[in-house]
Every structure is written in C-alpha cells, then in structure tokens.
Known about the structure:
The structure is a homotetramer.
Chain A: E1 9-11, E2 17-19, H1 22-42, H2 49-56, H3 60-66, H4 70-94, H5 99-115, H6 118-127, H7 133-160, H8 169-189, H9 200-211
Antiparallel strand pairs in A: 1-2
Chain B binds a DNA duplex through helix 1 and helix 3.
Amino acid sequence: MPYMKTDQKTENSLGKSIPDDPRKRAKYMAIIEAALEAFSEYGYHDCPVSKIARKANVADGTIYLYFANKEEVLISVFQEKINRLITDIEKLTKDCTDSWGKIEILVRYHMGALGNDRVLANFLQIQLRQSSANIRRGIALPLKKFYLLIENFVIEGQKEGVIDSFINANIARKLIFGTIDEVISCWVLSRRQYDVIERIDDVIYILRRALIVDTAA
Amino acid sequence: MPYMKTDQKTENSLGKSIPDDPRKRAKYMAIIEAALEAFSEYGYHDCPVSKIARKANVADGTIYLYFANKEEVLISVFQEKINRLITDIEKLTKDCTDSWGKIEILVRYHMGALGNDRVLANFLQIQLRQSSANIRRGIALPLKKFYLLIENFVIEGQKEGVIDSFINANIARKLIFGTIDEVISCWVLSRRQYDVIERIDDVIYILRRALIVDTAA
Amino acid sequence: MPYMKTDQKTENSLGKSIPDDPRKRAKYMAIIEAALEAFSEYGYHDCPVSKIARKANVADGTIYLYFANKEEVLISVFQEKINRLITDIEKLTKDCTDSWGKIEILVRYHMGALGNDRVLANFLQIQLRQSSANIRRGIALPLKKFYLLIENFVIEGQKEGVIDSFINANIARKLIFGTIDEVISCWVLSRRQYDVIERIDDVIYILRRALIVDTAA
Amino acid sequence: MPYMKTDQKTENSLGKSIPDDPRKRAKYMAIIEAALEAFSEYGYHDCPVSKIARKANVADGTIYLYFANKEEVLISVFQEKINRLITDIEKLTKDCTDSWGKIEILVRYHMGALGNDRVLANFLQIQLRQSSANIRRGIALPLKKFYLLIENFVIEGQKEGVIDSFINANIARKLIFGTIDEVISCWVLSRRQYDVIERIDDVIYILRRALIVDTAA
DNA sequence: TATGAATGAGCCTTCATTCAT
DNA sequence: TATGAATGAAGGCTCATTCAT
C-alpha cells in the first residue's frame, strides 16, 4: 500500500472504517444518530437517505463519504448500539461473582435500555429485521458477540451448579433472548401505552424458574 | 333471485374475500404458494410482483384480480399459513385433557411444521417481519389468535394447578413463542445445516422447567 | 365479398356499422347512453371500459362486439347526439321562411338542449375535446354538417339582405358556434349553479347585433 | 440571517414555486418549453414524461425536481404562456385611451400570437382541454385573469358609451373569447394550410358590429 | 351472441447513488 | 471535504383488448 489517506481510521469488527479524527467522528456519529431516528420513524425501506441527511444536517452526498451505502448505515447503527450494550453489560457484570446475578443484570439492563428508549427499541426490534442478505451478514457478527455473552453466563452457571446442567446452553440463550425480544417487540408494536419496565420482574421470575436449580431441599 | 351472477366469496378473518369458485380458488392458492416461495427466495422488498406472477404461471395483472396490492398478497399468505397452523393445532389438542400436553403438542407441531419447511419458516420468521404499518395491521389479528391459543393453554394449566400460578400468563406466552421464534429464526438464518427437529426436546425440557409446578414432593 | 355476416348493418357517415336488428340496436343504444353517462361522470381518459359496460349492463367484452375500441365508442356517442341535434333543428327550421329566425331557432334549441341536460353538455363541451388524432378525425365529419347548417343560414340571410354581406360567413359561423360553445362550457365547468337558459336572450341579442343589417333607417 | 442557504423562489399566481437561481430557472424553462412541444406533438395523455425529458435534455427524474407530477407540468406550461399573454396585452393597451381600441389590440395580439405559433396554439386550444378536475382547477385562476381583462374592456366601453349598454358584459366576453377560440381551433385542426392572420380583420369587423354603438347618426 | 377472466404493454414516480462544483 | 442537482433503473399498478367457454 504505497499511498495512504492521511487521516487514520480504526477498523471495527466488520472491517468498516470509523474515523479517528474527532471532527469526522462527530459527523459520523451525527449520521448514526440521525439514521437511528429516521429508520425508527419511517422504517428502513420507507426512509430515503435524504431524510437521514436532513436529520443529520448534512447533504445527501455526505452520507456516502462516511458509509458505502444505505445498508451500511443500517448495519453501522446496529453495531454502535449493540456494542454499547455489550460494553455496558460487561462493565456492570464484571464485579458480579454470581452467574445468575449476571444474567439478571443483563436482562434488567437490556430491557431497561430498550424500555426507556422507544426509538432504539423500535429500531432494534422492528426496523432492523429487514431481510436483505447483506444486512443480515453485517449484523451477524456483533449479534453473535451478544449471544455469546448470554450463553457464557449460562455455561458459567451450569459449572457453578446454579443452572440446571441438563439444559442445552444454546437453547437457554435462545430462551432468554427470545423472551426479551418478544416482550419488547410486543411492547413497541402495541398501541396501548404501558410500561415494559414493570414487566421485568415477571420476566426474571419465569427465566429463573426455567434455569435455576431448585435449592430448596 | 333464483340465480346469482356474481360469484360467491367467503370472508376470511380479516374481511378479505377468498373466491369460492373452485377454479378461482385454485388460482388464488397458486398465487399464494408462488408468493410464499418468491418472498422467501428474494425477500418481500426485493421481490417484484412479476416474480410471483411468473412462479404462479399467471400474468402480472392477474395478481391484481385476486389481491388489491402487493402488501395484501403478503398478508394473505400469512393468513393462509397461520390459520392452517391454528386449525391443525386446535384439532390435535382437542382430545388432549392435559393442558401441559396441549402446550407440548403446540410446540412440537409448530417447530415441526417450520423445521420441515424451510421456505415457510423463512417466510414466517424472516420475510414477514417487515415494518410497513399496513402489513403489521393486516398480520395482527390472525397472529393474536395464535397468541391467545397459547395463552389460554397457560391459563388452563394454571387453573389445573399444573402451571405455576405466580407466572404472568402473558409473559409465559411470550416466553413460549419467543423461544420457538428465536430457535427457528436462528436455524433459518444459520449457514450450518442442522436439524431443528432434534432441538425440540431441549426446548420442551426448558419450557417445562419454566412453567410446570414441581410435583416431586 | 363471397361471405357476409347474416345480420344487416347500416353504414353511418364514418363507415361504422350500426346494427339494424332491433335487439342489437337496443343494446347498441344502451352502450351509447351508458358511455355518455360514464364519460361525462369520469372523463374520457379516466373512464375504464368496464364502467361503461357496468352502466350498460353488459360484459366488458360485449362492448367490443359493437365497437372496435374505446375511441370508437366516444365517436359514436358524439355522432348519435350531434345527428339528433341536426335532425331536430332541420325539422324545426323547415317551415321557417326567415333566415334570421332559423338562426334564432338553432341557437335557442342548441342552448336549450344542452342547458337542460348537463350530462350531455359535459360530454359535448368537455369530455369530447380529447385530442387523439383518431377521435378528432371521427368527429370531424358530423361536426362539419352542423357547421354547414349554421353557415348556410348565414349565407341565406346575406342573400336575403337580412345579414350584413360584408361579413365573412365562415367567421359568422365561428362567432355563433364559438359564443354558444363558450357560454355552455363556462356553465358546465362553473361551480356556481345558475341557469344558462336565462342567458339565451342575451346571446340572441348580441348575435343579432353582430349579424343583422340595421333596418332602422 | 446574513446568508440564505436555501435558494429563493418566486411564487406565481397559483402559489407554485418558480426557481430564482438562474441556472435552475433556465432548466425550469427548458422543461416548460419541452413540455409545450411534447404535449403539442403527442397530446397530453399520449405523451409520456420521458418524451418531455428527452426534449428538455434532462433525465426523467429531473422533471420531478421541478414539478410535483405530470399534471403540474401541464398547468405550469399554461400559466407561463397565459401570463405572458396577459402581461404583453396589458403593456400594449396601457397607453390606449380608447376602450374599443384596447379590445382590438387584444384580439389582434392574441390571434397573432397563436396564429404565428402553431405549437402554442395547438397546446392552448387542443391539448390543454383535458378534463381532469385537477388540471381544470390549476388552469382556472390565470384563465379567469384573462377573462377579466376582456370583460373589463367591455365594461369600460359601456361606461364610455362606445359599447352598447344593453349587452351583457359577461356574454360579450364569451362572444369575444369564444369567437377567437373557435377561429384558432379550427385553424389548428384544419388540414388545409391557410393563414389565420388574414382572418383577423374579418373577426374584428364582426366583433365591432356586435359591440359598438352605431355613431353614424 | 355474450361473458368476464386473463393478458401484458406501458407509464408515472421514487430514490439510491454519483459527480461536477 | 462537502454539497445537492442530476441521474436513470426499476417496479407497482392500470386497463384496453382478447379469447376460451
């Protein structure tokens, strides 16, 4: 590579470049946030790139200086958000010695984060679920990271004897994630206004039943 | 009026008309099946109506003799499939006196039906999850019927004392549906070829743990 | 022509065939009247053939047993109506010995006929003015007959010394027809409801001024 | 706000925006002229937007950067042309103290403008007469302005005692406009090639007869 | 003769993407 | 680097017309 553009870039997990230059980084993030809002408001397919540009206060063409195409914008939004979620959960659970406790933290934090941010929830639960193969591919890796986070907590718990060892850890992950997913999705799509936060305890209760070894005896 | 000129129609659950005339009915179903395949293959947004028409061996315009627009085709495919699923499950569970047994039948049948039909699974789990408000509205009612089927089994079980009464039945429904959903979705999207059917017992095991009152004592 | 369809047809001025068989003639006229209504209601270009068929209580395809295509339907409606108008005026003026009187009869009858039949007026003044070359060609001949009727009255009047001989008779025809045309068109398009019939005397007054030799002296 | 980013627009009589930026204005006018030609050549309904684009040397999509839809293109062409006509006539008649003289100027100028521009004449007399309610609505206002111009000349003339006060001024307007309209329309549609300009004196002669008070005595 | 289901050509319009400035 | 005007491919949908019954 005999020639290199002057400004440095950091490669994220998907090989896409995130600008290091703080001014560029700011515009990059502005687009990300604008896209989150716009996708959430119109839906991915019904959201012209121009809407994102307008919300980000940049020209349409500017989007293409930071992202290869519209799909990549969607993927990048997801990556930013899911990575943030993962990082936060990792921090929160670092000092927790109890593996069920970690799961509880994860569930509470995840549900809380989405339950308090309808725009984000709508994006992650609804708009993201577009089916273009490219998008699915772009989403796969960071999502897997999140999956593994959960699955590892389960495996830990099984090693500790807290979680039933007969359970298939992968299925347990799907149970946990699938339940949260369903609860949040229903909430986002529901016309009735209610508070998902209030459902967290119910979710915890049933997940605990599903996983935890009965130590009553 | 001894003779009716206009052909009869049956109203489905959403008030849309399905032709009774067997020849029309056949073409209607041909389009439904073609659309299922086409949507599953290309994804809703990347599937031109012409692809459906070609698969159904009809002209593009013919689609519009049976459906108001592309959205309605998607919705109708869903309705046909989910109604079939509901009907089948209702039949299978009719003679079952055990409410946990009913849930087990439902889970096994649902996972089996999708696990043996990747096209249908792909359609229901992936392609359907489009976010156009109209589509969501069209899907809502029959989906709710399916939800209620599950939820009622749970409530029955709680009345019988088989299922833990402290559980929020609505959350239990979301746990059951969400878990299956996640398991099937991951399978459909997975590049690795494996058999979800083999995972059914694991799902049943963990769902039983989550719901059933421990009668060990 | 070695072979001839059994039912007889009369060729009209444009070479189109009008059925002689009374039952066919009835259906032909039913379509004509339905088309008049339908074109008037929706406008030629926004009126699908199916709307005409429905109004005429026949199947779409039946239209094409009587008319070569949609354009021909429009042309035929015009021919029927304008020929009727011409015939009526010819009858009414036959016994009139005064050529200005004939013009007055023509103007009063024409304005009365349209002023009392908004559907017909809308058709003739608005919907008919479509610009497809074919339509214009089809309309030209019977329209010319009407033009000549007027123009001949003017020429007669000039011969009789009643109408100013310095006037270009063709321009006089255009003045008469153009004025009526404008008055009726404005009325049809006007949102305000008023009665054109009441304007007839004003029109007669100004036309008389334009044409009649002042015999005051 | 010392600097305006968004380019300025001038509102025309119908509230539609015409670009002020000279480069945009040029392209706007290019489309207008191309549309005039294309509509005149093919007729509104038989003229695809792509034909206009080709004539204007722009891409199809560009049309939609300047006009909301095809209808608006038609309406805008009319507005440009009729406003030009009105402005010109207003200028020409400004210094004329004689109200019949103003009418004569108007008639001569209007007939001359169309008689020397068959494309414009064909557009205004034939293609424009489409019946879509939207189009008629869009055309109504500037057309009314033109109507009033004529009518006011008549009323002036009546006040001055030059024009017969027994004449209904509105009918007089319809006589003037209707006659010109008919003369021009016949000319445009005529296959024979003749010069309408040569008919102007005949029109003036008959209109004068219709309107002017005989001052012979 | 009558039907009306089926056809498929054709068009308006959108919008992701490019590129001259 | 940023702009936003311009592009043009693509697709949903309509409807005049046909033809098997």
